[in-house]
Amino acid sequence: MASSLILSLALSILTLSIPSTLQSSLPIWPVPRTLQWPHPHSILLSPNFLISSPDHRYLTLAADRYRRLLLAEHHRPLVPSAVDDAPAPPLKSLTITVADLVSPLVHGVNESYTISIPPAGNGSVAVLTAETPWGAIRGLETFSQLAWGNPTRIAAGIYVSDWPIFGHRGILVDTSRNYYGVDELMRTIEAMSWNKLNVFHWHITDSHSFPLVVPSEPELAARGAYGSDMVYSPEDVKKVVEFGLEHGVRVLPEIDMPGHTASWAEAYPEIVSCANMFWWPAGTKWPDRLASEPGSGQLNPLNPKTYQVAKNVIRDVSAMFPEPFFHAGADEVVPGCWKADPSIQDYLSDDGTLSQLLETFINSTYPYIASLNRTVVYWEDVVLDSTIKVNPNLLPPENTILQTWNNGPSNTKKIVALGYRAIVSSAEFYYLDCGHGGFVGNDSIYDRKPGTDQGNGGSWCGPFKTWQTIYNYDITFGLNEQEAKLVIGGEVALWSEQADPTVLDSRIWPRASAMAEALWSGNRDETGKKRYAEATDRLNEWRYRMVARGVGAEPIQPLWCVRNPGMCNTVNSH
Amino acid sequence: SLSSLSLPSLSSLPKTSSTSQSPINIWPKPRIFSWPRPRAVFLSPDFTILSPKHPYLTPSVHRYHRRVLTEHHRSLVAPAVNLTHANPLQTLTISVTDLAAPLQHGVDESYTLTIPGAGAGASVAAATVWGAMRGLESFSQLVWGKPSRVAAGVVVVDVPLFAHRGFMLDTSRNYYGVEAIMRTIEAMSGNKLNVFHWHITDSHSFPLVVPSEPDLAGKGAYGEEMQYSPEDVRRVVEFGLEHGVRVMPEIDMPGHTGSWAEAYPEIVTCPNKFWWPAESGWTDRLASEPGTGHLNPLNTKTYQVVRNVIQDVAAMFPEPFFHAGADEIIPGCWKAEPSIQDCLAKNGTLSELLELFVNSTFPYIVSLNRTVVYWEDVLFDANIKVNPSTLPPENTILQTWNKGLNNTKRVVSSGYRVIVSSSDFYYLDCGHGDFVGNNSLYDQKPGTDQGNGGSWCGPFKTWQTIYNYDITYGLNEDEAKLVLGGEVALWSEQADPMVLDARIWPRASAMAEALWSGNRDETGKKRFAEATDRLNEWRHRMVKRGVGAEPIQPLWCARNPGMCNTVHAS
Fold first, then answer.
1. Are B564 and B557 in contact (CB under 8 A)?
2. Model confidence at B2, in pLDDT bands (50, 70, 90)?
3. Measured between CA atoms, how close is A264 to chain B, in angstroms?
4. Could you give the CA distance from residue A428 to residue A411 in angstroms, rounded to a whole number?
5. Which residue is closest to A533 within chain B, CA to CA?
6. Comparing C-alpha atoms, which of A559, A555, A536 is closest to residue B174?
7. Which of A301, A373, B451, B461 has the fewest CB atoms inside 10 Å of its own CB, making it the most exposed?
8. Which residue of chain A has the CA closest to B493?
């Protein structure tokens, strides 16, 4: 990485010389760190175009996929390209060279690449170089975005050098509140790879359903899934994991525990406290709720059977998912649920505390996960919850990463100040489900006298996070250089209380693309100014290209705006 | 239309208790649904629907016949109903009193549906074919399972509260294919909605091929493949008739006409200018949003084109209501025009200009036997408005979109009939932020209150917000009679075919029930809690019928009725 950084400094000077009007004719998303195209022109792609790639289990498949895409996509830009089509021999091939073919797809793997396409008449072979196969896959995506038209033409005389700012760029999908088929998950992973996102955080289980078939605990899904047609078999998981590898996307499993586990009670009622009780009893206050939302149940840390089941789950999940990160949840452990359990009541009356209970649970599971060569990811609650939390001593920073979702940059700062690495999913910026109101029934908040201020719309994390809100979020805001290094990246999250396959694509795209660019090459131009205005036109183009590639991304503007660049802007600031 | 029902005699029918949920439901909930002993019979594989011959009822009957035999609906919660194996249902007989009544505002949509307990055939009795279609839809929702079975021992007596129950789609900001429009109309009929308000043209594109002015679409559409030909319009109108859905065209003018300038730059003021010039105040903007252009009331050519458009649109759309727009006339756009500057310099006013335009078009529309619908702005705009005497209430209806009930009250107290589309409640596009580029609003320091999310009409209107809106709240009985109904509206700055279904459904279903049978139970209490479970089922059924409605809850909630409620008041 260091050498490519030095190279980039040299290149960034050259980059400045590119007139900005030409960038709009090459709307690459996310925009590369450096791009040189001194004399914009294009050449045809040979109908027999080839990609020669080193033999690699996943890169070879990716190269073949991109070769087919390049010859078949025939992208039609919304703003017709003003680039000269030079009369020259067509581009015959792309040669990929990879320095290190054995690097596994893990956090921090080198994703840098360079692309060089010769100017018209100066040869017919383009070159893609990368440190690893995963960087080569990123380069192939960029290469595909340099092509358009029918017959296919491609930008010529162009040089790209590119690498990400953050190593962790992800999307969380919750498959427990509502179920998604494997095809939908794979479509999402494919679209992630177009956006150079690299972590599919699979929030597999929760209180509402347990769709994962765990071989040594088959009853969990058999009884806890929404139905036999709404499960993920080990074969399904293998398909998703392999598909991820072919697209350079890690598949990070989350088994949320000890909270959010009511669905476990369908198979094992004895290990779950307060299972399937009414979530917020009449006549009680919010602190006495049994769950933070309907669907109550938490694993009972005092029952040895709990660990028998949890360890079987952990072992099987790490066998199914090669990913070195294991997300173990630990968010929203709610006092009322444990307090409702008689065995826990005894424990508390013997001067035990709820936090000690959580520590018992963590001490009985964390070392086991770590022993399987996994880095454990928890939600920040495990150390930052106001009521039930563990002593940070229990969680050595070298084996622990915390994912933040509350209080924006303040909690990110708390996490890194404790020495932990942070994954940023601040709800105010990165929660894709927010802004569609609450899902809880019988809520009188929507029955106000007309004229009453509707506020942010009723959902706890409203309003809706627009692509601009997501794009502009600086996830290292307020951190010093040392602290910022502990921020390994971010994830937009789709919690599925009000989402399922009918809205999956439009909830995620193109808003996840906004984060993808901010985390890959940043949200500022060379002068340090936020580039959301310029990004609008590119994102419009990119949204249409994603739609043409088969993903139902939502529109961000009338077509008229794309056709009339700049005319839909405001020049008056708020 | 209430007169066709003798409600007192009906109130003696045994009802399903309002507290216990019926095992199978109709959306929108009928006015009277009597099913004292829930049970079901099979539909005979030879099941037939006997119906009078009618150009639109007959295709509708065929459609429902196919549906009840092939839908095989699987409820989220299996209905706990005793199934009688003997005597499968053989026939549904439709009787219609007046086969000639056309589909227009106020047509009688009442029906009575009877499915006897055993042996006898079922029946739908309706005053008109349009009421019969409503009855067929209700019948179809009482059928489920494989093999198909149907609720038995049921009497439904039904009639809408409001006659105008619509959905508005803007096909100018972004284009929708005819298939997407027809899918929407079909889903509307499933919800007993009856007016597809087609906001066809606006400043961004002019997709309608007007035979006598072909250049308008030829130059003003987004492209050849993004136009509606007369044949397309005919298909949509016919499809609407087969589904009991009126297709009401809107040609928005004299504002919102930037796209007309592609063919006729001379009749459009301030076309294709930057909408809000730098350094100018909001009041000096040229348009309320990007995309500028107003028709010039001083140019005689304007009326030549406009009348051709009006004449052809009236010919293409049989609907007796003609929506002529007249919203958001912006002073800056007319003031930017030299000929208008001259007029103003001679003590003319902008409101007089609008009156000139209205006086030159309104009588012409009326002469074509049309009732003219305008947006409320034509009378209520703060700057540019006409004198109410210009618009006789017998030929004019106003559609309200600002200030909730206040403006509804203003419209009716001026003596006009009103269609309610209050943006605080009925605008389906709100809450997804703003589409204007380069907006620094979204680049605030972290921790800054995000307010309602930045769109002018945010936040997002949830189904509950829509469901609970009482469109005659605060009106006296006479005023309330002038409220014809309502329309939810999808403006398309941030919508296109990708998100059409999910933006509309099931939120339009929420209005559909509120306007058909109300949002309160027999005791007068808002029934949003009970409606949640029914809407969950209905949304699921719509998805299976091919409409991508968005989910409102985890499946777990539907499977565990009541468990996802709150019992705490907000």
1. yes
2. very low
3. 14
4. 12
5. B438
6. A559
7. A373
8. A558
Closest of A59, A270, A40, A304 to residue A148, by C-alpha: A40
Q: How many whole angstroms separate alpha carbon B428 and alpha carbon A53?
A: 50
Rg of chain B in Å (alpha carbons): 25
- A505: Cβ contacts below 8 Å, ≥ 6 apart: A187, A188, A191, A551, A552, A553, B498
Round to whole Å and give the CA distance between A317 and A202: 12
SS3 track for B430-498: CCCCCCCECCHHHCCCCCCCCCCCCCCCCCCCCHHHHHHCCCCCCCCHHHHHCEEEEEEEECCCCCCCC
Helix (H, G, I), strand (E, B) or coil at A446: helix
Report strand pairing: A113-117 vs A158-162: antiparallel
How far is B251 from A545, CA to CA, in rounded Å? 32
* Cα A68–Cα A73–Cα A78 angle in degrees, nearest 5: 160
Asked if residues B189 and B244 have their Cβ atoms less than 8 Å apart, the reply is yes
Reported as a pLDDT band with limits 50, 70 and 90, residue A80 is confident
Residues B201 and B261: beta-carbon distance below 8 Å:
no
- For A543-567, letters b (16+ CB in 10 Å) and e give bbbbbebebbbbbbbbbbbbbbbbb
CB contact under 8 A, A503 and B492: no
A451 and B569 within 8 Å at the Cβ level: the answer is no
Collect all residues with Cβ–Cβ distance below 8 Å to A67 and sequence separation of at least 6: A49, A50, A51
Nearest-neighbour CA in chain B from A429: distance (Å): 9
Dihedral sign for Cα atoms in the order B317, B321, B324, B328: negative
> What are the tokens at B311?
């004449």
User: Which residues of B are catalytic, by number?
Assistant: 328
Tell me the residue length of chain B: 570
Residue A574's pLDDT band (cuts 50, 70, 90): low
DSSP string, B65-121: HHHHHH-----SS----EEEEEEEEEEEEEEES-TT--S-TT----EEEEE-SSSSP
Which residues in chain A have Cβ-Cβ distances shorter than 8 Å to B473?
450
A496: confidence class by pLDDT, cuts 50, 70, 90: very high
The predicted model scores a pTM of 0.95
Would you call A560 and B222 a contact, using CB atoms and an 8 Å cutoff? yes
Torsion angle (degrees, nearest 10) of CA B322, B327, B333, B338: 50
Q: Are B131 and B112 in contact (CB under 8 A)?
A: no
Q: Following CA atoms A176, A180, A181, A187 in sequence, which dihedral angle do they give, to the nearest 10 degrees?
A: -130
Nearest to A558 by CA among A548, A572, A543, A545: A543
Q: Which residues pair with A493 in a beta bridge?
A: A172, A431
Question: Residue by residue, what is the 3-state secondary structure of A344-380?
Answer: HHHHHHCCCCHHHHHHHHHHHHHHHHHHCCCEEEEEC
> Which two structure tokens, joined as six digits, stand for B413?
């107290």
Among the partner residues B173, B441, B553, nearest to A558 by beta-carbon distance: B173
A335 alpha carbon, distance to own chain's centre: 30
Distance, in Å, from the CA atom of A383 to the CA atom of A374, rounded to the nearest integer, reads 19
- What are the tens digits of pLDDT across the range B519-540? 999 999 999 999 999 999 999 9
Pairing verdict, β A487-494 and A421-424: parallel
CB pairs under 8 A between A and B: 292
Distance CA B217, CA B219 (A): 5
Q: Give residue-wise pLDDT tens across range B225-256.
A: 999 999 999 999 999 999 999 999 999 999 99
CA distance A44 to A29: 22
CB atoms B548 and A558 under 8 Å: no
pLDDT tens for residues B385-429? 999 999 999 999 999 999 999 999 999 999 999 999 999 999 999
Distances, alpha carbon B515 to alpha carbons A78, A535, B243, B348, B452, in Å: 41, 43, 18, 44, 27
